[in-house]
């Protein structure tokens, strides 16, 4: 499981490791956005919270994640990004794992200074089709097509400073206590994720091989 502030690189690492190890990766955000895109009643309820950068209520989260985690594709393992986000979520997550006879093995905490996160926000681009993340400062202003799936690349409407500040405040208030609870279980390893993505990937591979 990957935990960190918004823009800390969780999704990038989940995707890189998934490709390298042939283990599926997903995030609560990907699952939620897929549900929203489906146009379902549940997706429409979720959209109102996501557009404001607020956490999805527990009852909606539980309903969707239980059916998602039961997917046979995840039987051999899963890199999970963005859930649980608080102590209340952790209780739900524990129950979901127990019901599926699965176990949380390790929690990678991505620690990044807020100034670095704000710098990443400015250039963040996302593929509308596969959710791959790019940075305009690295790929250039004319970059419009995903190199992974050829889908359109754009700036998400929730990638703005006001939404970031709200999400960062929620992270500090709700996710840091979650990290402490997981640390007490002996599961947390903290990495300084201002490092280059491939350097971080090698560090995580070393952790997973131990």
From TrEMBL:
The keyword Kinase applies. Coiled coil: none annotated. GO terms for molecular function: AMP kinase activity; ATP binding. Keywords: Kinase, Nucleotide-binding, Transferase. The keyword Kinase applies. HAMAP family: Adenylate_kinase_Adk (MF_00235). Belongs to the adenylate kinase family. This is Adenylate kinase active site lid domain-containing protein. It comes from Arcella intermedia.
